Protein backbone atom coordinates (compact mmCIF):
# COMPACT_ATOMS: atom_id res chain seq x y z
CA UNK A 1 0.00 0.00 0.00
CA UNK A 2 1.37 3.42 -0.94
CA UNK A 3 2.11 5.53 2.16
CA UNK A 4 1.20 9.21 2.37
CA UNK A 5 4.73 10.44 1.58
CA UNK A 6 4.96 8.34 -1.58
CA UNK A 7 1.46 9.43 -2.60
CA UNK A 8 2.56 13.06 -2.35
CA UNK A 9 5.71 12.45 -4.40
CA UNK A 10 3.83 10.51 -7.10
CA UNK A 11 1.27 13.27 -7.66
CA UNK A 12 2.25 14.84 -11.00
CA UNK A 13 -0.99 16.03 -12.59
CA UNK A 14 -3.18 18.90 -11.44
CA UNK A 15 -6.83 18.67 -10.38
CA UNK A 16 -9.02 16.78 -12.86
CA UNK A 17 -12.08 18.49 -11.38
CA UNK A 18 -10.51 21.85 -12.19
CA UNK A 19 -9.87 20.72 -15.76
CA UNK A 20 -13.52 19.67 -16.07
CA UNK A 21 -14.70 23.06 -14.81
CA UNK A 22 -12.49 24.84 -17.37
CA UNK A 23 -13.76 22.58 -20.16
CA UNK A 24 -17.44 22.98 -19.26
CA UNK A 25 -17.19 26.76 -18.91
CA UNK A 26 -15.33 26.94 -22.22
CA UNK A 27 -17.95 24.80 -23.97
CA UNK A 28 -20.83 26.88 -22.57
CA UNK A 29 -19.15 30.10 -23.73
CA UNK A 30 -18.50 28.57 -27.16
CA UNK A 31 -22.15 27.52 -27.62
CA UNK A 32 -23.53 30.76 -26.22
CA UNK A 33 -21.29 33.14 -28.16
CA UNK A 34 -21.56 31.15 -31.39
CA UNK A 35 -25.33 31.62 -31.31
CA UNK A 36 -25.14 35.34 -30.56
CA UNK A 37 -23.43 36.90 -33.54
CA UNK A 38 -24.09 40.63 -33.68
CA UNK A 39 -22.89 42.71 -36.63
CA UNK A 40 -23.12 46.46 -36.09
CA UNK A 41 -21.35 49.59 -37.27
CA UNK A 42 -19.29 49.82 -34.07
CA UNK A 43 -15.61 49.91 -35.11
CA UNK A 44 -15.49 47.10 -37.67
CA UNK A 45 -11.91 46.14 -38.45
CA UNK A 46 -12.19 47.49 -41.99
CA UNK A 47 -13.08 50.98 -40.75
CA UNK A 48 -9.99 51.06 -38.52
CA UNK A 49 -7.78 50.20 -41.51
CA UNK A 50 -9.53 52.77 -43.70
CA UNK A 51 -9.01 55.44 -41.04
CA UNK A 52 -5.30 54.64 -40.87
CA UNK A 53 -5.01 54.80 -44.67
CA UNK A 54 -6.56 58.29 -44.43
CA UNK A 55 -3.92 59.20 -41.82
CA UNK A 56 -6.50 59.47 -39.04
CA UNK A 57 -4.58 59.74 -35.77
CA UNK A 58 -7.48 58.35 -33.71
CA UNK A 59 -7.53 55.20 -35.86
CA UNK A 60 -3.80 54.82 -35.27
CA UNK A 61 -4.25 55.03 -31.51
CA UNK A 62 -7.10 52.49 -31.70
CA UNK A 63 -4.75 50.17 -33.59
CA UNK A 64 -2.07 50.61 -30.91
CA UNK A 65 -4.50 49.79 -28.13
CA UNK A 66 -6.10 46.79 -29.85
CA UNK A 67 -2.62 45.33 -30.44
CA UNK A 68 -2.40 44.55 -26.73
CA UNK A 69 -4.82 41.66 -27.29
CA UNK A 70 -3.63 40.70 -30.78
CA UNK A 71 -1.21 38.06 -29.43
CA UNK A 72 -4.19 36.18 -28.01
CA UNK A 73 -5.98 36.34 -31.42
CA UNK A 74 -8.55 38.84 -30.08
CA UNK A 75 -7.37 42.22 -31.36
CA UNK A 76 -10.26 44.10 -29.76
CA UNK A 77 -10.45 47.56 -28.26
CA UNK A 78 -12.30 46.57 -25.09
CA UNK A 79 -10.25 43.39 -24.73
CA UNK A 80 -7.07 45.46 -24.68
CA UNK A 81 -8.35 48.24 -22.43
CA UNK A 82 -9.71 45.68 -19.97
CA UNK A 83 -6.39 43.85 -20.07
CA UNK A 84 -4.44 46.98 -19.15
CA UNK A 85 -6.81 47.75 -16.27
CA UNK A 86 -6.63 44.11 -15.25
CA UNK A 87 -2.84 44.27 -15.15
CA UNK A 88 -2.69 47.42 -13.02
CA UNK A 89 -4.79 45.76 -10.29
CA UNK A 90 -2.55 42.72 -9.59
CA UNK A 91 0.59 44.87 -9.92
CA UNK A 92 -0.59 47.16 -7.13
CA UNK A 93 -1.75 44.22 -5.05
CA UNK A 94 1.58 42.49 -5.67
CA UNK A 95 3.56 45.51 -4.50
CA UNK A 96 1.46 45.54 -1.33
CA UNK A 97 2.06 41.78 -0.89
CA UNK A 98 -1.68 41.18 -0.88
CA UNK A 99 -2.91 37.60 -0.85
CA UNK A 100 -5.38 38.64 -3.56
CA UNK A 101 -2.65 39.54 -6.09
CA UNK A 102 -2.82 36.12 -7.73
CA UNK A 103 0.13 34.63 -9.58
CA UNK A 104 3.00 37.11 -9.41
CA UNK A 105 2.72 39.48 -12.35
CA UNK A 106 5.79 39.65 -14.64
CA UNK A 107 7.18 36.50 -12.99
CA UNK A 108 7.74 38.17 -9.63
CA UNK A 109 10.48 40.46 -11.00
CA UNK A 110 8.57 43.59 -9.89
CA UNK A 111 9.06 45.26 -13.28
CA UNK A 112 5.52 45.43 -14.70
CA UNK A 113 5.56 49.26 -15.05
CA UNK A 114 8.78 48.96 -17.06
CA UNK A 115 7.29 46.22 -19.23
CA UNK A 116 4.23 48.35 -19.89
CA UNK A 117 6.39 51.41 -20.61
CA UNK A 118 8.39 49.42 -23.17
CA UNK A 119 5.17 48.38 -24.88
CA UNK A 120 3.88 51.94 -25.13
CA UNK A 121 7.24 53.34 -26.23
CA UNK A 122 7.93 50.74 -28.89
CA UNK A 123 4.42 51.10 -30.35
CA UNK A 124 4.84 54.88 -30.56
CA UNK A 125 8.16 54.32 -32.37
CA UNK A 126 6.62 51.78 -34.75
CA UNK A 127 3.52 53.81 -35.60
CA UNK A 128 4.70 57.42 -35.51
CA UNK A 129 8.45 57.22 -36.18
CA UNK A 130 8.97 54.18 -38.40
CA UNK A 131 5.50 54.48 -39.92
CA UNK A 132 4.81 50.77 -40.36
CA UNK A 133 1.06 51.38 -40.65
CA UNK A 134 1.64 53.27 -43.90
CA UNK A 135 2.05 49.81 -45.50
CA UNK A 136 -1.67 49.14 -45.06
CA UNK A 137 -3.32 49.23 -48.47
CA UNK A 138 -6.16 46.67 -48.23
CA UNK A 139 -4.45 44.73 -51.02
CA UNK A 140 -0.89 43.58 -50.36
CA UNK A 141 -1.08 44.44 -46.64
CA UNK A 142 -4.44 44.45 -44.87
CA UNK A 143 -2.73 43.82 -41.53
CA UNK A 144 0.71 44.61 -40.07
CA UNK A 145 2.10 42.55 -37.12
CA UNK A 146 3.02 45.54 -34.96
CA UNK A 147 1.75 43.61 -31.92
CA UNK A 148 5.02 41.66 -32.00
CA UNK A 149 6.68 44.67 -30.39
CA UNK A 150 4.52 44.11 -27.29
CA UNK A 151 5.55 40.49 -26.82
CA UNK A 152 9.20 40.34 -27.81
CA UNK A 153 12.53 42.12 -27.84
CA UNK A 154 11.88 45.24 -25.71
CA UNK A 155 10.41 43.19 -22.89
CA UNK A 156 13.08 40.47 -23.11
CA UNK A 157 15.81 43.10 -22.75
CA UNK A 158 14.23 44.37 -19.53
CA UNK A 159 13.95 40.82 -18.19
CA UNK A 160 17.62 40.08 -18.93
CA UNK A 161 19.27 43.41 -18.08
CA UNK A 162 16.90 44.68 -15.43
CA UNK A 163 14.84 47.88 -15.25
CA UNK A 164 16.65 50.99 -16.46
CA UNK A 165 16.14 53.82 -18.93
CA UNK A 166 19.02 52.48 -21.04
CA UNK A 167 17.44 49.03 -21.28
CA UNK A 168 14.04 50.55 -22.00
CA UNK A 169 15.17 52.69 -24.94
CA UNK A 170 17.75 50.27 -26.34
CA UNK A 171 15.33 47.34 -26.41
CA UNK A 172 12.45 49.42 -27.75
CA UNK A 173 14.47 50.97 -30.59
CA UNK A 174 16.23 47.78 -31.67
CA UNK A 175 13.07 45.71 -31.40
CA UNK A 176 11.11 48.32 -33.31
CA UNK A 177 13.62 48.37 -36.15
CA UNK A 178 13.98 44.61 -36.55
CA UNK A 179 10.78 42.74 -35.73
CA UNK A 180 8.11 43.88 -38.17
CA UNK A 181 10.31 43.91 -41.31
CA UNK A 182 11.64 40.47 -40.37
CA UNK A 183 8.10 39.11 -39.96
CA UNK A 184 7.02 40.41 -43.35
CA UNK A 185 10.12 39.00 -45.06
CA UNK A 186 9.78 35.52 -43.48
CA UNK A 187 6.08 35.54 -44.33
CA UNK A 188 6.56 36.41 -48.01
CA UNK A 189 9.68 34.40 -48.80
CA UNK A 190 9.61 31.34 -46.53
CA UNK A 191 6.29 30.48 -44.86
CA UNK A 192 3.80 31.22 -47.66
CA UNK A 193 5.92 29.49 -50.37
CA UNK A 194 5.94 26.24 -48.35
CA UNK A 195 2.14 26.30 -48.07
CA UNK A 196 1.75 27.33 -44.43
CA UNK A 197 -0.42 30.16 -43.04
CA UNK A 198 1.68 33.27 -43.46
CA UNK A 199 1.32 34.65 -39.96
CA UNK A 200 3.21 31.67 -38.51
CA UNK A 201 6.17 33.79 -39.63
CA UNK A 202 5.51 35.96 -36.57
CA UNK A 203 6.93 33.34 -34.21
CA UNK A 204 10.15 32.95 -36.17
CA UNK A 205 10.47 36.72 -36.53
CA UNK A 206 10.14 37.08 -32.77
CA UNK A 207 12.84 34.48 -32.17
CA UNK A 208 15.18 36.14 -34.67
CA UNK A 209 14.59 39.72 -33.56
CA UNK A 210 14.90 38.92 -29.85
CA UNK A 211 18.11 36.96 -30.44
CA UNK A 212 19.70 39.68 -32.56
CA UNK A 213 18.63 42.40 -30.12
CA UNK A 214 20.09 40.60 -27.11
CA UNK A 215 23.28 39.76 -29.03
CA UNK A 216 23.71 43.42 -29.90
CA UNK A 217 22.97 44.44 -26.31
CA UNK A 218 25.74 42.13 -25.09
CA UNK A 219 28.21 44.18 -27.18
CA UNK A 220 26.97 47.66 -26.28
CA UNK A 221 29.14 49.36 -23.64
CA UNK A 222 26.23 51.05 -21.87
CA UNK A 223 24.24 47.85 -21.37
CA UNK A 224 24.93 46.43 -17.92
CA UNK A 225 22.79 44.07 -15.92
CA UNK A 226 21.04 45.68 -12.98
CA UNK A 227 19.66 43.81 -9.97
CA UNK A 228 15.91 43.34 -9.77
CA UNK A 229 14.13 44.86 -6.80
CA UNK A 230 12.14 41.66 -6.35
CA UNK A 231 9.53 41.15 -3.69
CA UNK A 232 10.19 38.47 -1.08
CA UNK A 233 7.48 35.84 -1.52
CA UNK A 234 8.86 33.44 1.07
CA UNK A 235 10.33 29.94 0.60
CA UNK A 236 9.52 27.65 -2.32
CA UNK A 237 6.74 25.11 -1.70
CA UNK A 238 7.70 21.75 -0.22
CA UNK A 239 6.35 18.39 -1.42
CA UNK A 240 3.30 18.49 0.80
CA UNK A 241 2.40 22.03 -0.23
CA UNK A 242 2.82 21.14 -3.92
CA UNK A 243 0.52 18.15 -3.44
CA UNK A 244 -2.17 20.32 -1.87
CA UNK A 245 -1.83 22.88 -4.66
CA UNK A 246 -2.11 20.27 -7.40
CA UNK A 247 -5.24 18.82 -5.78
CA UNK A 248 -6.88 22.25 -5.58
CA UNK A 249 -9.26 22.83 -8.54
CA UNK A 250 -8.92 26.60 -8.14
CA UNK A 251 -5.16 26.48 -8.80
CA UNK A 252 -5.42 24.86 -12.23
CA UNK A 253 -8.12 27.41 -13.18
CA UNK A 254 -5.92 30.30 -12.04
CA UNK A 255 -2.81 28.94 -13.72
CA UNK A 256 -4.66 28.29 -16.98
CA UNK A 257 -5.99 31.84 -17.02
CA UNK A 258 -2.53 33.25 -16.31
CA UNK A 259 -1.24 31.58 -19.49
CA UNK A 260 -3.38 33.93 -21.56
CA UNK A 261 -1.23 36.93 -20.60
CA UNK A 262 2.14 35.16 -20.54
CA UNK A 263 2.98 36.37 -24.09
CA UNK A 264 2.83 39.97 -22.80
CA UNK A 265 5.21 39.11 -19.92
CA UNK A 266 2.32 39.59 -17.45
CA UNK A 267 1.33 36.00 -16.61
CA UNK A 268 -1.42 36.85 -14.15
CA UNK A 269 -4.91 35.39 -13.92
CA UNK A 270 -6.61 38.67 -12.93
CA UNK A 271 -5.25 40.42 -16.02
CA UNK A 272 -6.33 37.44 -18.13
CA UNK A 273 -9.84 37.42 -16.69
CA UNK A 274 -10.25 41.10 -17.56
CA UNK A 275 -8.87 40.37 -21.04
CA UNK A 276 -11.44 37.64 -21.72
CA UNK A 277 -14.34 39.70 -20.34
CA UNK A 278 -13.29 42.60 -22.56
CA UNK A 279 -13.08 40.31 -25.60
CA UNK A 280 -16.62 39.06 -24.89
CA UNK A 281 -17.82 42.69 -24.71
CA UNK A 282 -16.16 43.33 -28.09
CA UNK A 283 -18.01 40.31 -29.48
CA UNK A 284 -21.37 41.58 -28.25
CA UNK A 285 -20.73 45.10 -29.57
CA UNK A 286 -19.71 43.87 -33.02
CA UNK A 287 -18.54 40.39 -33.95
CA UNK A 288 -16.72 41.89 -36.95
CA UNK A 289 -14.57 44.11 -34.74
CA UNK A 290 -12.10 41.74 -33.06
CA UNK A 291 -9.25 39.86 -34.73
CA UNK A 292 -9.51 41.28 -38.25
CA UNK A 293 -13.27 40.80 -38.28
CA UNK A 294 -12.81 37.05 -38.65
CA UNK A 295 -15.80 36.17 -36.39
CA UNK A 296 -14.09 33.08 -34.93
CA UNK A 297 -13.62 34.32 -31.34
CA UNK A 298 -15.89 31.70 -29.65
CA UNK A 299 -13.97 28.79 -31.17
CA UNK A 300 -10.59 30.37 -30.44
CA UNK A 301 -11.55 30.96 -26.81
CA UNK A 302 -12.66 27.35 -26.32
CA UNK A 303 -9.49 26.02 -27.98
CA UNK A 304 -7.37 28.19 -25.68
CA UNK A 305 -9.17 27.16 -22.50
CA UNK A 306 -8.90 23.49 -23.45
CA UNK A 307 -5.26 23.55 -24.54
CA UNK A 308 -4.26 25.64 -21.53
CA UNK A 309 -6.25 23.54 -19.09
CA UNK A 310 -4.95 20.23 -20.44
CA UNK A 311 -1.39 21.56 -20.49
CA UNK A 312 -1.54 22.69 -16.86
CA UNK A 313 -3.27 19.44 -15.88
CA UNK A 314 -0.47 17.38 -17.42
CA UNK A 315 2.51 19.54 -16.44
CA UNK A 316 1.25 21.36 -13.37
CA UNK A 317 3.92 19.89 -11.11
CA UNK A 318 6.63 21.35 -13.34
CA UNK A 319 5.11 24.78 -12.79
CA UNK A 320 5.49 24.35 -9.04
CA UNK A 321 8.94 22.75 -9.14
CA UNK A 322 10.47 25.24 -11.58
CA UNK A 323 8.47 28.32 -10.64
CA UNK A 324 7.07 28.43 -14.19
CA UNK A 325 6.59 26.15 -17.20
CA UNK A 326 5.72 27.08 -20.83
CA UNK A 327 2.17 25.68 -20.88
CA UNK A 328 1.10 28.91 -22.63
CA UNK A 329 2.74 27.77 -25.89
CA UNK A 330 -0.35 26.05 -27.45
CA UNK A 331 -2.72 28.66 -25.99
CA UNK A 332 -1.37 31.41 -28.24
CA UNK A 333 -0.24 29.34 -31.22
CA UNK A 334 -1.27 25.76 -32.03
CA UNK A 335 -4.91 25.72 -30.94
CA UNK A 336 -6.09 29.09 -32.32
CA UNK A 337 -4.04 28.70 -35.50
CA UNK A 338 -5.68 25.35 -36.25
CA UNK A 339 -9.10 26.91 -35.74
CA UNK A 340 -8.21 29.62 -38.25
CA UNK A 341 -6.85 27.02 -40.70
CA UNK A 342 -9.39 24.19 -40.46
CA UNK A 343 -12.54 25.86 -39.16
CA UNK A 344 -14.50 26.36 -35.95
CA UNK A 345 -15.94 22.85 -35.52
CA UNK A 346 -15.62 20.88 -32.29
CA UNK A 347 -13.46 18.09 -33.84
CA UNK A 348 -10.91 20.70 -34.96
CA UNK A 349 -10.98 22.40 -31.57
CA UNK A 350 -10.66 19.16 -29.60
CA UNK A 351 -7.89 17.60 -31.67
CA UNK A 352 -5.72 20.72 -31.90
CA UNK A 353 -6.21 21.54 -28.22
CA UNK A 354 -5.33 18.08 -26.94
CA UNK A 355 -2.48 17.50 -29.39
CA UNK A 356 -1.08 20.99 -28.83
CA UNK A 357 -1.29 20.71 -25.05
CA UNK A 358 0.66 17.45 -25.11
CA UNK A 359 3.53 18.57 -27.34
CA UNK A 360 3.75 22.35 -26.89
CA UNK A 361 5.29 22.86 -23.46
CA UNK A 362 7.71 19.87 -23.49
CA UNK A 363 9.08 20.88 -26.89
CA UNK A 364 9.65 24.43 -25.63
CA UNK A 365 11.43 23.00 -22.58
CA UNK A 366 13.62 20.90 -24.86
CA UNK A 367 14.66 23.96 -26.87
CA UNK A 368 15.33 25.84 -23.62
CA UNK A 369 18.16 23.53 -22.62
CA UNK A 370 21.66 25.00 -22.78
CA UNK A 371 20.35 28.46 -23.63
CA UNK A 372 23.19 31.03 -23.31
CA UNK A 373 22.94 33.23 -20.24
CA UNK A 374 22.66 36.49 -22.19
CA UNK A 375 19.57 35.25 -24.05
CA UNK A 376 16.01 34.86 -22.72
CA UNK A 377 13.75 31.82 -22.49
CA UNK A 378 11.09 33.48 -24.64
CA UNK A 379 13.27 32.71 -27.70
CA UNK A 380 12.90 28.91 -27.54
CA UNK A 381 9.27 29.35 -26.50
CA UNK A 382 8.31 31.29 -29.65
CA UNK A 383 10.42 28.93 -31.77
CA UNK A 384 8.42 26.08 -30.27
CA UNK A 385 5.20 27.89 -31.15
CA UNK A 386 6.19 28.15 -34.80
CA UNK A 387 7.54 24.62 -35.17
CA UNK A 388 4.76 22.82 -33.27
CA UNK A 389 2.06 24.82 -35.07
CA UNK A 390 3.50 23.83 -38.45
CA UNK A 391 3.80 20.22 -37.29
CA UNK A 392 0.21 20.09 -36.02
CA UNK A 393 -1.16 21.64 -39.21
CA UNK A 394 0.84 19.10 -41.25
CA UNK A 395 -0.56 16.22 -39.21
CA UNK A 396 -4.11 17.49 -39.57
CA UNK A 397 -3.64 17.95 -43.33
CA UNK A 398 -3.06 14.20 -43.62
CA UNK A 399 -5.99 13.18 -41.44
CA UNK A 400 -9.12 12.51 -43.51
CA UNK A 401 -11.64 14.11 -41.15
CA UNK A 402 -10.17 17.65 -41.25
TrEMBL record:
<keyword id="KW-1133">Transmembrane helix</keyword>
<keyword id="KW-0812">Transmembrane</keyword>
<feature type="transmembrane region" description="Helical">
    <location>
        <begin position="264"/>
        <end position="284"/>
    </location>
</feature>
<feature type="transmembrane region" description="Helical">
    <location>
        <begin position="203"/>
        <end position="223"/>
    </location>
</feature>
<feature type="transmembrane region" description="Helical">
    <location>
        <begin position="73"/>
        <end position="93"/>
    </location>
</feature>
<feature type="transmembrane region" description="Helical">
    <location>
        <begin position="141"/>
        <end position="161"/>
    </location>
</feature>
<feature type="transmembrane region" description="Helical">
    <location>
        <begin position="114"/>
        <end position="135"/>
    </location>
</feature>
<feature type="transmembrane region" description="Helical">
    <location>
        <begin position="168"/>
        <end position="191"/>
    </location>
</feature>
<feature type="transmembrane region" description="Helical">
    <location>
        <begin position="378"/>
        <end position="399"/>
    </location>
</feature>
<keyword id="KW-0472">Membrane</keyword>
<feature type="transmembrane region" description="Helical">
    <location>
        <begin position="296"/>
        <end position="316"/>
    </location>
</feature>
<protein>
    <submittedName>
        <fullName>Uncharacterized protein</fullName>
    </submittedName>
</protein>
<feature type="transmembrane region" description="Helical">
    <location>
        <begin position="328"/>
        <end position="358"/>
    </location>
</feature>
<feature type="transmembrane region" description="Helical">
    <location>
        <begin position="12"/>
        <end position="33"/>
    </location>
</feature>
